[in-house]
Design goal:
Helices cover 33% and strands 23% of the residues. By secondary structure, the protein is an alpha/beta fold. It has two domains: 176 residues, no CATH class; 100 residues, Rossmann fold (3-Layer(aba) Sandwich). Strand 11 and strand 12 form a beta hairpin. The longest helix has 18 residues.
Length: 320
């Protein structure tokens, strides 16, 4: 697999790091005109020379053949909005990037997150939790997108003998059944409650701390392009076993989202938006309650900077 590759559509280049199924990689899979170039990667006995691979081969190199995606899209009327495509690519129960048994992050995975980059992250959070608990009493710690439980395990190790005076309970929220099984097997019986969604959580004992690291950037986004006739939304269509772009007038909720942020795209300007982020964040706050604390670590820009037409035209927005 490539350490780095460039996706080319003849007009622009999007660079992306190895393996994490990010937007750029999915664009390549969705657009039959895209090709992959890597001038330093030897292929077919041609060392250190530039070569091209048809876009469908990206997924074959990375994971399983894309026939299942064609089937899923055909079952939905032969075309789906990009956020639906992204949901399938990331979270399909059998073929989704995050749904399999392989741990995608960490030193042996595809990418690093703060909790897996160094044990110091969990130690720093544990120290903060101890300070909060000293004022409010034992806390219920809820880790969103908990994966295999690395963060929660690190917090417990850091607290050591103080864990009972700092924590009243641990909750791992994880969509992948394979990862939930890893969490269950990692901890002592009944040490960690493991659920598949925030909606499964009830009120806990004492104050609740909600923790999430790089959760929002793993959520599906809509993809739009500015047009003189109004905002156009990009769909992924399946025809003759191939995937390609299809533009349609943006759905009402997509138009309303951009309007509510005061964003007007110039003709040809491409942008993305995470429509589900606001509702999900409200769920977090409901679970945390009035006496709770949310610790959300992610990255991004304010809308006015993110959608500046003079900046790069491939952007992602999510409201803090």
């Amino acid at each position: 697999m490539f350490n780095q590759f460039v996706l080319c559509d003849g007009n622009s280049k999007l660079k992306t790091k190895n393996s994490k199924l990010c937007d750029s990689a999915m664009v390549a899979m969705a657009n039959p005109k895209f090709e992959i170039r890597n001038p330093k990667f030897p292929c077919d006995g041609i060392p250190n020379s530039e070569f091209r691979i048809p876009n469908w081969h990206l997924w074959c190199l990375y994971n399983a053949p894309m026939s299942w995606m064609n089937d899923e899209i055909q079952a939905r009327g032969a075309a789906v909005a990009f956020d639906v495509f992204m949901e399938l690519a990331l979270y399909h129960p059998v073929n989704g990037y995050y749904s399999g048994e392989k741990v995608r992050y960490g030193r042996s995975g595809d990418f690093l997150t703060a909790p897996t980059a160094s044990p110091w992250y969990s130690r720093v959070v544990a120290r903060m939790l101890a300070a909060v608990a000293a004022e409010r009493g034992p806390l219920r710690l809820v880790d969103l997108a908990a994966g295999d439980g690395s963060f929660l395990a690190g917090v417990l190790d850091a607290l050591g003998s103080r864990r009972d005076e700092v924590l009243s309970g641990l909750v791992a929220v994880e969509r992948s059944s394979a990862m939930r099984e890893r969490v269950v097997n990692r901890f002592a019986p009944n040490q960690v409650e493991c659920v598949d969604g925030v909606s499964s959580l009830g009120k806990g004992t004492g104050s609740t701390v909600i923790h999430a690291s790089e959760l929002y950037d793993a959520m599906p986004v809509v993809r739009v392009v500015g047009d003189a006739d109004g905002l156009q939304e990009m769909w992924v269509a399946s025809a003759r076993g191939e995937l390609g772009w299809e533009q349609r007038p943006a759905r009402n909720e997509v138009c309303e989202y951009f309007q509510s942020h005061g964003v007007e795209l110039e003709p040809g300007q491409v942008a993305e938006a995470n429509l589900a982020a606001v509702g999900l964040h409200r769920e977090f706050l409901d679970v945390a309650g009035e006496d709770g604390l949310t610790l959300i670590l992610d990255y991004g820009y304010e809308a006015r900077r993110l959608y500046n037409s003079r900046a790069e035209k491939n952007t992602t927005c999510q409201e803090n």
